[in-house]
Amino acid sequence: MWHNIKQNHFMIISGLETLVLGAYLIYVQHVFILPRPLPTVEMVRIVEHAQDPWIALTLVVVGVLSIITGAWDMNHFYAKRVSLVAMVAVWVTYLVAFTVHDLSNSHVIGIGTILIAFILIRLFAEALWGDHV
Length: 133
Known about the structure:
By secondary structure, the chain is mostly helical. The chain has six helices and no strands. The radius of gyration is 16 Å and the shape is elongated. The chain starts with a helix and ends with a helix.
């Protein structure tokens, strides 16, 4: 198993990042508090639901799936690809949520949003140039 962890360290570390974001959003309440009165843009109202428990739980599930896929080197049914695509999907969703939240509150992109963008760049680079299984 140690060989699998060394071989798939990217998948495991990215899974841990996803898991930690989900756990953080479950534990810390009101991350996506919007200014009052609410702007009329409908997207800003949708962002309020980015911290709903079932959405944050999706992050935890995708993170655990990615960790398991990497630690046991699962290649059946394209498990690594499915994990990578699932991580990209949830991180893109949260990049949009954090960007809308930052722009509606302070009109400045925060450091957390920038770091999420770099996580996405790493995930896209792994999808394009990583080990194709």
